[in-house]
Amino acid sequence: MIFLYIIGVITAVIILLALIAPKTYHVKRSIVVNKPLPEVFEYLKHIKNQDYWSPWKKRDPNMEQEAFGIDGTVGFVNKWSGNKDVGVGEQEIKRIVENDVVESQLRFYKPWKSQSDAYIKVNKVDANKTEVVWGFSGENKFPSSIFMMLYNIDKHVGKDFEEGLNSLKEILNKK
């Protein structure tokens, strides 16, 4: 009888956690670069340029990459396989609105399987300054949604976005 009571309590706790756990996530950061919007957008729409400013490329400069399609166009896919810090996955350009936004889908296979929607958006500040907004969002599926109650994805990934955007600013401001 006590065993059934314990199983019932554990089950109730799991159900309660599943109900209150965050179902979605959205992380974004922004920075202003001292370049005109069209120049910034032209650089950003090419996924391979992320090799120069991405914090994850810095964590594994020897990661293996394979590309399919024409970079800077819808349908381009960049696959990677790296160390434990970067894992295995791919990024596909899904939508481009010229001088506005590049939307892509991130598919992670290792260390865990997940899918996120990413974007890089540009906003004109003035003739020679452009705001770059980098973000991604997705769904937390059960049981990982319970883990997300303990893990601050905004703080963790946001820190990486800030690092990447600072590197991007350095690169673009030198061009």
Write the layout of secondary structure elements.
Layout: H1 2-20, E1 24-33, H2 37-44, H3 50-53, H4 55-59, E2 64-68, E3 77-81, E4 88-97, E5 101-110, E6 114-126, E7 129-139, H5 144-147, H6 153-174
Antiparallel strand pairs: 1-7, 2-3, 3-4, 4-5, 5-6, 6-7
Description:
By secondary structure, the protein is of the alpha+beta class. The protein has one domain: Alpha-D-Glucose-1,6-Bisphosphate, Chain A, domain 4. The protein is 35% helix and 37% strand. The protein is built from six helices and seven strands; from the N terminus they run H-E-H-H-H-E-E-E-E-E-E-H-H. It is elongated.
In summary, what is this structure?
InterPro entries: START-like_dom_sf. This protein is α+β, with helices and mostly antiparallel strands and 175 residues long.
Q: What portion of the residues fall into strands of 2 or more residues?
A: 35-45%
Could you say which structural class the secondary elements and strand pairing correspond to?
alpha+beta
The number of helical elements comes to 6
> Major sheet, described briefly?
7 strands, antiparallel
CATH topology term: Alpha-D-Glucose-1,6-Bisphosphate, Chain A, domain 4
- What is the CATH top level name? Alpha Beta
Helix content: 25-40%
CATH architecture: 2-Layer Sandwich
The order of strands across the largest sheet is: 1-7-6-5-4-3-2
Mean pLDDT comes to 85
Shape label = elongated
CA radius of gyration = 19 Å
Distance between the termini: 73 Å
For this structure, what is the CATH homologous superfamily?
A: START domain
Task: Find the count of extended strands (DSSP E, 2+ residues).
Answer: 7
Q: Low-confidence spans: pLDDT under 50, at least 5 residues?
A: none
Q: Please give the domain count.
A: 1
List SSEs in N-to-C order: HEHHHEEEEEEHH
